[in-house]
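Q&A log
Question type: sequence-to-structure
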Amino acid sequence: MSKPSIPQGTRDFNAGVVQKRNYIFHTIRSVFELYGFQPLETPSMENLDTLMGKYGEEGDKLIFKILNNGLDNPTKKEQAIADFDKILEGKNSKGITERALRYDLTIPFARYVAMNYGQLTLPFKRYQIQPVWRADRPQKGRYREFYQCDADVVGSQSLLNEIELTNLYAAVFEKLHLPVEIRINSRKILAALAAICGGLEMLIPITIAIDKLDKIGLEKVKEELLNNGLTTNQINTIEKYLLINGTNDQKIIQIKNLLGDNEMGKSGIAELEHVLNNAQLISPKSSLIIDLTLARGLNYYTGIIFEVKAIGAQMGSIGGGGRYDDLTGLFGVPNVPGVGISFGVDRIYDVLEELQLFPDEVQKGTKVLFFNLGEAESKKAYELMQQLRNHGIASELFHENTKLDKQFKYAEKKAIPFVIILGTKELAEGTCNIKNIQTGEQKTILQNELAQQLF
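Response status: OK
Response body:
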């Protein structure tokens, strides 16, 4: 019999990890609700047509497709065999697969809005905390199953939403005591760059190439642009764009000079300036930075885009998002503006671990272990244990009457700070012995004072 395993790119989480993850979830959820967002959940799987074509060619390749049920039916089986070559070529066949695991939370949200548009109070502000799946190559900080935490606003074009989401990012990372850079750019600026470098039809290949800058470097980006048909002069313009640096104000001046009178570019720059001038980051640990190399390779972004990076950690982005002013148009409800951000919980977890930023109190487990010293003793111990539980003190009774050494080892391995020893003598006197495992201090107290001693 082979050794049991789990699929590559997935993980099991023990109690300690789950408690730390819940700390992150609770922190993010509390800020979402503080900013007026309400919860939403959507199915783990969507119809394949809902997802395909929404993430660009690269994204479509990473969608986990679900095999249809009933393929053992002779008629379906015959059709599936006939269509199998299509699947191998990366095409789709409804005879073999009609559904897929969700790739992100944004497209399912857009689908939800389109289906329920007439019943929504606009602007509609929702948050969603659920797992997503991508057929990506697993590596540090990149998994095939992972959680996203999204906050989105639809039904409003106001830049107040971008300002709010910027501040929301800062508030969450302040609560997590994690210093971050909140990087912003505008797809309008990238569209203006494309317009002066071959036309708007070049926007997608240009943004896809720029999005790889951190991974493959400038020379490889230029090589990819050349392979996409751009001229040397156009590539030189893009290189000038990518080499813009300095303070936020200096970057604004340089990009204005590069894009000239392009109206799309002017609009994008004005929006960036508005957010920069009005975002009031309450966290000294967060900084707001214009990053003109930020592209967000997904096709649906139309305005300001975000990316968050942790300071002092060996990790890529831990959050991102942007404006998508016609995403619901993909589902037959056009002209519904929207903007949203996402938190990468798994990456945030890795960063907090790397920087040792999880607070000690996150590891909440059993606080008290009652030793099992016999039938009468354990019966009384159980009564006292229930009283402690009624006071919110997590307690256990060891499952069997065995050697004290074994019971002590159980407490130590589970990091239980206190043990209660209730023997024949203590049972007769109405007392119990309480021992602090960490300090070794032990004292005898009245049983009716136990809860007070442990508060």
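Response note: The domain at 365-454 is CATH 3.40.50.800 (Rossmann fold).
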